[in-house]
Amino acid sequence: MDKSARIFYGLLAVAAIASLGAGLKAAGGLGVAFAFFSVLVLGGGLVCIWERSVVRSAFSLMATFGGTAGLFVLCGADFLGMAQILIYVGGILALLLFGVMLSPPDLGERKLPRVLGGLVAVGIAIGWVALKVANTIDPTGVAWAVDPNLAQPRSHVTEIGLGFVHPEQYLIAFELAAFFLTVALVAAVYIARRRRVDLEPEGSA
Amino acid sequence: MGVEAYVAVSAALFALGIVCIVARRNILYVLMGIEMILNAANINFVAFNRFNGDGLDGRMFAIFVIIMAAAEAAVALAIVLNVFHLFQSIKPSEVDLLRE
Question: What is the ipTM of this complex?
């Protein structure tokens, strides 16, 4: 592990511990849970950008997707959290790792100045937009401001299942999604197939 | 823990996704950045749903976004396979057949 890696992971660990403490101070146990999942999400993303090897980046995305599932559960969307783990960690990440096999071990591809420059530029842009938004919106007056009497999150699993099949709710969208998924997967198989020309040896075609 | 905390995390994840797309020169990193951006959008959907009446719409949107992400990953990987077959490389800068 070289020096920059040590610095990076040390800073990451300090930031994680600090945010856990901040969460505990702000909102007790719920705050700690939120800080933990947020650290997973953002730390996974940072490691993905920072790491040299594609395999490590892909595996660090597992933390991002798992942390997102945790945030969903904190919002009461337990079914969505389960689907997130199932589809993202089990499906999309496996697909990405399959794609990693095509990637040559090009460790010099990551340029630290590029990464840092991108982080700084996007950070400045986000900060500017946040300032503009904070100037125009009064957070106490909008409808979605925090309600101290907010009810406990409910589980919606049955409602989601019924919403899929109820003709006045999401039946059309559900059928469209099924059709879309079928078309996309058949198209993916068609694009990725080997043509007969490819299978013949060199020179005979 | 209000909606602002979730929105802040989502914005930061979105920024990380943009940086991941822009700063790395490998198609796989572009795909990873897109997944991060979709995840950020999903966090927003679920958080606003939770803090705005706890209905069903935001979650349904998030479910359809997940479905779309799955289809996108499958098609993108198929395209990457084909690009690798044609160019023996998966760097976006080397896929320039139409330039000639």
Answer: 0.89
